[in-house]
Amino acid sequence: MIENKALSMNIESRLSFEEFRKEVLNDYRLACESREVSLLARREVLTGKAKFGIFGDGKEVAQVAMSKYFKPGDFRSGYYRDQTVAFATGIATPEQFFSQLYADPDQQHEPFSGGRQMNSHFATPNLGNDGNWLNLMEMKNSAADMAPTAGQMPRALGLAYASKMFREAESLHDLKHLSDNGNEICFATIGDASTSEGHFWETMNAAGVLQVPLAVFVWDDGYGISVPRKYQTTKNSISVALEGFRKADGTNGFDIYNVKGWDYAGMCEVFEAAIRKIRETHIPALFHVEEITQPQGHSTSGSHERYKSKERLSWEKEFDCNLKMRSWILENALCDEETLVQIEANAKTTAQDARKAAWEKYITPIKQEVQRFVSLATPLTAVAGVNAELVAQQIRELQANREPQRRDILKAAVTILIRHRQLKTDPAVQALQQYYDQYLQGEKENYNSYLHATGANSVHAIPVVPAEYNDDATTLNGYEVLNKYFDQLITNNPKVFAFGEDVGKIGDVNQAFAGLQQKHGPVRITDTGIRELTIMGQGIGMALRGLRPIAEIQYLDYLLYGLQPLSDDVASLQYRTKGAQHCPIIVRTRGHRLEGIWHSGSPMGMIIHSLRGMNICVPRNMVQAAGMYNTLLQANEPALVIESLNGYRLKEKLPSNLETFTVPMGVPEVLKEGSDVTLVTYGSMTRIVEEAIGTLEELGVSCELIDVQTLLPFDIHHSIVQSLKKTNRIAFIDEDVPGGGTAYMFQQVMEQQGGYRWLDVAPRTLTAQAHRPAYGSDGDYFSKPNTEDVVKMVMEMMEE
Questions:
Q1: Which end of the chain has the lower number of beta carbons within 10 A, N or C?
Q2: Is 599 a catalytic residue?
């Protein structure tokens, strides 16, 4: 019996060793394949087949080691050197990597962005076209990458914070397709130089305070492009600089680990235990992965030999992670030299096959279009009056182009068509024109679609439900209307969470959440630190994981602190993933008239132009705001809702269907009909204009007042121009700087809607001054449009 037991243990030991050996060799295979992809991709850029390349060479072993502990349900929030992570987790294949390098717009070939983003920008879908969330627990998830350095950090906090909410909010425990009791980790990766960004520091501080399952991996290759680390980081080490954040007994903070990027066994040992601890305890951790190399330099735009010493270059060759792992395998007798040589040869073949397959898929349809163009252009050479040599030249140039692009075909076609406009009735010319129009439209769909959600996810799919009022409707202050609304919302929608500065205990500075934290608990309604950037990050990450956050910026003036992730991440998300990924965050704030330079903000032009892709809601009162929240919460699109700062104590009637009525996006409301002049405005200015209209009526002028309600989208049915057809006079009024929001509205109506055709007098814009508003009542009067300004402007128009 003893001998048999010993034999059994020996067999089990051999099997365990064999499994371990296979796993190690598979990891080495992944590292080799990723390296070969980097080397081959660089050549593709330098030979002109691709525009630009940035690769993860030198980080392969560390990323393979990290990826071993990345489970279904986890999220990645990384940066553009994570190709090995993508390959190791199955998020991407080498062929898809090359398809993205070539900017293939076919989502079957390049599913991450449909050719819209440069290489190594990965994304996984989170919502179906039916508006239902996918089973994220069956997937290894990746938030859509973006290039701004450290921009991935704020949303990484939110992705981890969502796990905290899923664990602590009992009402979410049944959402098994979105979370397994909050056991999911967000893996964030960042280059060492980017830790100098404020985004990194704010995120790390917030993670330490909140205690969320965030694993941050810092790839430290000693440089920020050409600038050495000593000029980047205090004490020449990010882990040393962060030592004060290290968690100790009885404190918050995070764990800090130091590993070498070439030490496969050491990293696996540390990562396994540390990741398990993060998953179980929700204590965040920073992994400082040191002694990383960068064999090909920063990117294809330059050579690292220009700024690295010979000694450094020599060291990088010696400590190349793949070579170090290779030596370790041989030293530990996990296989022989011949096996490794075969793995390395196979890696070259795999990379070559991936490159070839991706290129053929990319170029074949273009070459087919070239042949189609040639078949339509050739008959033109026989048409009387055609410049046959011009046509032949366009054909020859396209046929000689070994790597044609879609634009080359369209340029050739339009070159011929423009120069033969006089023959537009000829059948051959018409055939080419039809081809050009259809091809151009199809490619516009490839490159210009999905700025906003479509189908069931779109705000435009939400039925319009008017507000209803009982005969004895209660009249309340505006903030009380919102308070009742948010109370009902939090009660009935378990996915909604509200947070921001002073939102919790005191119920926000204007009392819309007064008493609600006490009623619903601090998990659902939460105070935050003064950190607008990561408040936005919290909301972004939660929204990416199926929750419905209402993230508050206390005053609109402070939106600048949180604007970068909203602009670069949220607003562009649906576009840059070609509709695959959605982030239905609602950012709540307040602005327009009040007092002083930093509490009277109306920077609408800045917002409109930096947040294309979001809904920008500008309700004139709190009932309208509630209706907008209802619409947004039924759709899956991001939005900024700007409540009127001076409207919280104005009286409003309470609708009987407060939680169900909706305000449509992009549909202005005519507040008063008139026949002489159309006045277009929004937000707090509606009350100023209404007051002016009273005076104008006494002067015999009939004004039509239109509240645009949302600036993005803007008047989707072109109802404003219908008013202009009636009045033949129009003025756009707001509190932004000259050339800001009013110029945008002017362009939309005059140009997009063709409003210039119906003008009898010059259109007007009435705005605030170019400077920020001065403090005090007189400061407001002279800084922003007032009632007398509106009256004088309209009378001038009537007398023109």
A1: N
A2: yes
